[in-house]
Amino acid sequence: MGGKDIINEVLTLKRERKAVILAHNYMNHDVQVVADFIGDSYDLALKAMETNAEVIVFAGVRFMAEQAKALNYDRIVLAPDPNAGCTIADALDVDTLRRVREEYPNVPVVLYVNSNANVKALADYIVTSSTAVRVVKKLGSDVVIFGPDSNLADYVAHMTGKRIIKVPPSGRCVVHGSYTARLVKEARARYPRARVMIHPEAPINVLRLADFVGSTNQMIEYARSSGYNEFVIGTEIGMLNALRIKVPGKVFHPLSTGPYARCPFMGMVTLEKVHGSLRDLVHRVEIPKSIAEAIREAFERTRKLLEG
C-alpha cells in the first residue's frame, strides 16, 4: 500500500471508528497530514476532551498517550508504538521522587508534563514548557522541587530567582540537551537575517543566546505574528513540518542536523503504525483510575493557580 493509499485508508478508518488523531508537532509530515489536531502534548490532550470521538489515537511518545488517557479516562486511547519512550520522562522514578519529598517536606512538587503517569500522580502541580515559569513564580514557596528536566529547571530558576531542587539532577532531552553555544553561533553566521528560537529544554548557556525562548506552540505563534520572515529553530527537527504547515510563506532552518536532531522515539511513530493501530484498535493505553484521578487533580490545581 502506497503513501496516498495509506492516507486515504486512515481517513476512512477515522470515520468508521469515530476516531480523532492527535499528532505532536514533532511528528513526520505524513502523520501530521492525517491528524485532526497538531500541537504540543498538553494542548492535544485538552483538544481530545473537546471532541465527541470514541477513539483517540495519540501520535507521540508514551507519556503523551498516558496523559490523554488520564484526561479522557472513559475513551479508548491508542498509542501507535507503545515502546516510544522519552529520555526526560524515563529519568525519574516513583521511589526517587518519594525520597526527595521526604527529604524536603512541605516543599511543593512541580513536575514537567514530560513525565510518566505513575510519577506525575505524585505532583502538586504539572506544568508545560510554556507555563513552568509562571507557575513557579506564583507559588508562595521560595523553594520548589522540580523535575524531571534539569535544563528546564535551570531556566525556571534563572527566570524566577527561586531555589530549585532538581529531581533528578541530570534528566535531559536527548535532542535539546545536545545543543551548544557553538551551534547557535554557527547558525547566526550561516543565516544572519534569521531570528533564533530555542526550546527551554536546552542548556541555559544556549538559551541566553536565543532571540526567543519558548515551547513548540509558542514558537509557532511567534513565527506567525512577528514581522520576521526567517527563523532558526532550536528544537526537534520534526517541528519544521508543523511550522511549514501552520506558518506558510516563511523560511525555517534547523539549529542542528546532527545525529541528535531527530528524536529517536518520535521517529518510531510512523503513518503505517498509526494505520495499524487504528485498523486493529491495538496498543490501548491503560492506567489505574487512581493514577488518572491524581493527575487530573494536579492539572486542575495548576489551572486554578494560573487563573488566580
Structure in words:
Helices cover 43% and strands 16% of the residues. The protein has 308 residues and is α/β, with parallel strands linked by helices. It folds into three domains: 3-85 and 266-286, 3-Layer(aba) Sandwich (Rossmann fold); 89-172, NadA-like (Rossmann fold), CATH 3.40.50; 176-254, NadA-like (Rossmann fold, 3-Layer(aba) Sandwich). It has a four-stranded parallel beta sheet with strand order 2-1-3-4, sandwiched between helices. Helix 7 (132-138) crosses helix 8. It is globular.
Layout of helices and strands:
Elements: H1 3-17, E1 19-24, H2 29-34, E2 37-39, H3 41-49, E3 55-59, H4 62-71, E4 76-78, H5 94-103, E5 109-112, H6 117-120, E6 125-127, H7 132-138, E7 143-147, H8 150-160, E8 163-166, H9 181-190, E9 195-198, H10 204-207, E10 212-213, H11 216-225, E11 230-234, H12 239-246, E12 251-254, H13 271-280, H14 289-307
Parallel strand pairs: 1-2, 1-3, 3-4, 5-6, 5-7, 7-8, 9-10, 9-11, 11-12
Helix pairs in contact: 1-13, 3-4, 4-14, 7-8, 11-12
